[in-house]
Specification:
alpha/beta; seven-stranded mixed sheet; 35 helices; globular; GcvP; GDC_P; oxidoreductase; Glycine dehydrogenase (decarboxylating)
């Protein structure tokens, strides 16, 4: 071997494609074994049997060759260095913050936290569930409301969700919604977009006059976009007297000092948790908080973490009221949220845990003191402020000196907010120092001494009216008053991490979710200061590197999808769906086809599809599927013809959610086009397309791409995500723009189109992950990843097919990148359900596949390309062993209600003391020999979901409950 290498070409020794082999699990020998096992000569033969020839790409992806990890990092580093990170005092919902190092290293940069999935399997997610419960308690305390969810996507979309929730809750007959004109402009932009497609009328005005209007709801900002703090109790009361539901957009850090929204009478409080230790990141990802009154719990969007009991009666946490999810409500949903911002919500909650009540009060008081000193110094210099009452933001009348002051600040290294031609806004934050205040005063030509101003401001008591200062206790739960040394915090984070199963432990085979390697080299750039610390509204000349990286990624995605236009704004897959259907709706409207409101959706679709269509004002018409899981083409033709004059779109997932490449996909697209509709392709299964086919070549007009699936952004325990869309040329003029920050050049076709997310490029700081992935894989690597994903799925289906029927296959007996295993015959024979199998898999050290989607009583398995043969075989062996356990029940050896499946998962408490079960302790917890080598112990027994919903409790558990 050494001799061979010594004579090998330099190109071979350079290993420029090394990352491909780091990312893809099976090596060449394992691939040969798997091909032999499923009866094909090689991978090419398998692909020929799986992907219809008519849609195969004729040429390789137009992407560069793969780059080694260190080379890709060096290229991206040069792009990052083009960014100019100045001290941001822009504010407007985005602020500098200090991420505590213990949280940065042990949560944000820790795969134990960022590679986990949404906590649907609660018994192996107790750590992040507790972290989210902390977050909810923090929000409840600071908002003064009774119930909070576990985060939404961003402040602007949270405001839009508040509007639609108000419509559900309000008994008012009005179709109008009031919006405080002093709300952040990006929030207004998103609310306008959402309101248009729901058909709501927006009424704008001063918050003080809100009660004069007949509306079903209202959105007020506190403090407002100008920084002013006002007592809103009177307008809130006036609105509620007329039956309106009132939402207050607020700031968590301000609420540490300010009277809470709940005490002012608000029904809903929302905002961004970004400044609780989460970097600005050019706009995201950031967790939006959302709180309301308990009476409205079933109308609240997003996920809620609740308290329940396990089989031993011990306290256990779970996602409450899961039937609120969109795959249940479908076209009746008012929201299509299936992604929250769990990783960022965890960070914000941990920030509160680490600092505690007193620490947060000190930080908030310091922020306010700096703002008050700045204001006093400017007044002394003869400037007028728009408001005497504020928390952290002031707006200054600068008249003809505006440009001069902004230039001076820029020269000194500061970005101020250009509020108008004659005014400047200045926001201070946790990172602001007295030296910053002195420098900024100098930019205004003021020469006051900060220390002297400090004495004056302290004596005056600040700039918050006494009547608006908070007097109630917050963050009194022990969790916020215990972990204030780094050692304590480190151990608390480790304790919670140990309760969670993530990709750092074992394969997560969730169908439709594509849980694969999130490589370290992809993650490294996220925390570089040049990407982490830039404000999304910073002058574009300061973001040159960011914009080049984003456009470079857009070019990659153009190559992959075949679309000429890419919109990078949607910050989740569901938001991508919405942005795509909005573009279609705008396109039809531009042609005068306002009657085109019908959206055809196969009955196999993910629930976000009909929810999205409903949000765009469309009527959902369901298309049947045949016995093989394919779209019933004849039914599609009939319905397309029936609604030909009204047809807006078809939403279709490809490969289908049934896990097959439908042979008739091009005919399906043609039928829709012939009847005047557009084809929206749900990109959930794009991991089976890349390099082999593409949405554009199939016939789609627009498609979203789940970067957190196909392109390796980690799921973060349920978020962050990114769902950019690709559009055909005729739809490009209708994609989202942004009212504050342009999303392209001045001559962009889509200029002025309303936004769908708060930031112009969504969650921009995680885009380097996908950029790195594609750069390191190159076109050849991406294609190979797709081929191996399909190989792994077919190998798994082949080996498990003898034990669990594979429900759907293609015309030649192959599945795509996932397969559906039918558990219904087992249930009929034994009473064992897919839930029992899911819980039993925990004892083997695995997270369950996707349950009961898209077919009830089944599990959907997706191994991805990143799992090697040994790990796939371990999962297969576990599933076969579980099937043998079921046979013990079928044969009467074990009782139907007392067996390892019904009692799963087993905890350490189960094997202590007396044992009276019909199977051994070893069978319970070490069912196969290799399990003991890397045992994952669930921290609770099976959780009682019904108890948790009937006894809804969604705040931190009293310590006495744990003691009991």
């Amino acid at each position: 071997m050494t001799d061979t290498l010594l004579s090998a070409p330099l190109a071979q020794l350079e290993q420029r494609d090394a990352f491909i082999h780091r990312h893809i699990g099976p090596n060449a020998d394992e691939i040969s074994q798997m091909c032999a096992a499923i009866g094909v000569a090689d991978v090419d033969a398998l692909i020929d049997q799986t992907v219809p020839a008519a849609i195969r790409l004729k040429v390789p992806l137009p992407l560069a060759e793969p780059q080694p990890e260190h080379v890709a990092l060096a290229v991206l580093r040069k792009l990052a260095e083009k960014n100019v990170v100045k001290r941001s005092m822009i504010g407007a919902g985005y602020y500098g913050t200090h991420t505590p190092a213990v949280i940065l290293r042990n949560v944000m940069e820790n795969p134990g936290w960022y590679t986990a999935y949404t906590p649907y399997q609660a018994e192996i997610a107790q750590g992040r569930l507790e972290a989210l419960l902390n977050y909810q308690q923090m929000v409840i305390d600071l908002t003064g409301l009774e119930l909070a969810n576990a985060s939404l996507l961003d402040e602007a979309t949270a405001a839009a969700e508040a509007m639609t929730m108000a419509r559900r809750v309000s008994k008012s007959k009005s179709n109008a919604f009031f919006v405080d004109a002093a709300t952040f402009p990006q929030t207004i932009d998103v609310v306008r977009t959402r309101a248009h497609f729901f058909g709501y009328e927006l009424v704008f005005g001063d918050a003080a006059s809100a009660g004069e209007h007949d509306v079903f709801g209202a959105l007020l900002q506190y403090p407002n976009a100008h920084g002013a703090v006002a007592d809103l109790a009177a307008p809130i009361a006036a609105l509620k007297a007329k039956g309106a539901v009132v939402a207050l957009a607020s700031d968590l850090m301000a609420l540490v000092l300010l009277k809470s929204p709940g005490s002012l009478g608000a029904d809903i409080a929302l905002g961004s948790a970004q400044r609780f230790g989460v970097p600005m990141g050019f706009g995201g990802p950031h967790a939006a908080f959302f709180a309301t009154r308990e009476a409205h719990v079933r109308s609240m969007p997003g996920r809620i973490i609740g308290v329940s009991k396990d089989a031993r009666g011990n306290t256990a946490l779970r996602m409450a009221l899961q039937t609120r999810e969109q795959h249940i409500r479908r076209e009746k949903a008012n929201s299509n949220i299936c992604t929250s911002q769990v990783l960022l919500a965890n960070m914000a909650g941990f920030y509160a845990v680490y600092h505690g009540q007193q620490g947060l009060k000190t930080i908030a008081a310091r922020i306010h003191r700096h703002a008050a000193i700045l204001a006093e110094g400017l007044r002394a210099a003869g400037f007028k402020l728009t408001s005497a009452s504020f928390f952290d933001t002031i707006e200054v009348d600068t008249g003809v000196h505006t440009a001069q002051i902004l230039t001076a600040a820029d020269t000194a290294g500061y970005n101020l907010r250009h509020a108008s031609a004659t005014s400047i806004g200045v926001s201070v934050d946790e990172t602001t120092t007295r030296e910053d205040i002195q420098t900024v005063l100098g930019c205004f030509g003021a020469t006051a001494n900060v220390d002297a101003l400090d004495v004056s401001v302290a004596q005056a008591g600040g700039a918050i009216p006494a009547g608006l200062l908070r007097t109630d206790a917050v963050l009194s739960h022990p969790v916020f008053n215990t972990h204030h040394t780094e050692h304590e915090m480190l151990r608390y984070l480790k304790k919670l991490q140990n309760r969670d199963l993530a990709l750092d432990h074992s394969m997560i085979s969730l169908g439709s979710c594509t849980m694969k390697l999130n490589a370290t080299s992809e993650m490294i750039p996220v925390t570089w200061p040049e990407f982490a610390n830039l404000h999304p509204f910073a002058p574009r000349e300061q973001a040159t590197g960011y914009l080049q990286m984003i456009e470079g990624l857009a070019d990659y995605l153009r190559a992959v999808t075949g679309f000429p236009a890419i919109c990078m704004q949607p910050n989740s897959g569901a938001q991508g769906e919405y942005a795509g259907l909005v573009a279609i709706a705008r396109y039809h409207a531009s042609r005068g086809d306002i009657q085109r409101k019908v959206c055809l959706i196969p009955k196999s679709a993910h629930g976000t599809n009909p929810a999205t269509a409903q949000m765009c004002g469309m009527k959902v018409v369901v298309v049947d599927c045949d016995e093989r899981g394919n779209v019933d083409v004849e039914d599609l033709k009939a319905k397309a013809a029936q609604y030909s004059n009204e047809l807006a779109a078809l939403m279709i997932t490809y490969p289908s959610t049934h896990g097959v490449f439908e042979e008739s996909i091009r005919e399906i697209c043609a039928v829709v086009h012939e009847n005047g509709g557009q084809v929206y392709m749900d990109g959930a299964n794009l991991n089976a397309q890349v390099g082999l086919t593409s949405p554009a070549s199939i016939g789609a007009d627009v498609s979203h791409m789940n970067l957190h699936k196909t392109f390796c952004i980690p799921h973060g325990g349920g978020g962050p995500g990114m769902g950019p869309i690709g559009l055909a040329a005729h739809l490009a003029p209708f994609m989202a723009d942004h009212v504050v920050a342009p999303t392209g050049n001045a001559d962009r076709q889509h200029k002025g189109q309303g936004a769908v997310s708060a930031a112009p490029f969504g969650s921009a700081s995680i885009l380097p992950i996908s950029w790195m992935y594609i750069a390191m894989m190159g076109g050849s690597g991406l294609k190979r990843a797709t081929e191996v994903a399909i190989l792994n799925a077919n190998y798994l289906a082949s080996r498990l097919g003898a034990h669990y029927p594979v429900l759907y296959t293609g015309g030649k007996g192959r599945v795509a990148h996932e397969c559906i295993l039918d558990i219904r015959p087992i249930k009929a024979a034994t009473g064992i359900t897919e839930v029992d199998i899911a819980k039993r898999l925990m004892d083997y050290g695995f997270h369950a596949p996707t349950m009961s989607f898209p077919v009830a009583g089944t599990i959907m398995v997706e191994p991805t390309e990143s799992e090697d043969l040994a790990e796939i075989d371990r999962f297969i062996d576990a599933m076969i062993a579980i099937r043998e356990e079921v046979r013990q029940i079928e044969n009467g050896i074990w009782q139907a209600d007392n067996n390892p499946l019904k009692n799963a998962p087993h905890t350490q408490a189960d094997i202590m003391g007396d044992w009276d079960r019909p199977y051994t302790r070893e069978q319970a917890v070490f069912p196969l020999a290799w399990v003991a080598e890397n045992k994952f112990w669930p921290s609770v027994n099976r959780i009682d979901d019904v108890h948790g919903d009937r006894n809804l409790f969604c705040a931190c558990v009293p310590m006495s409950d744990y003691a009991d």
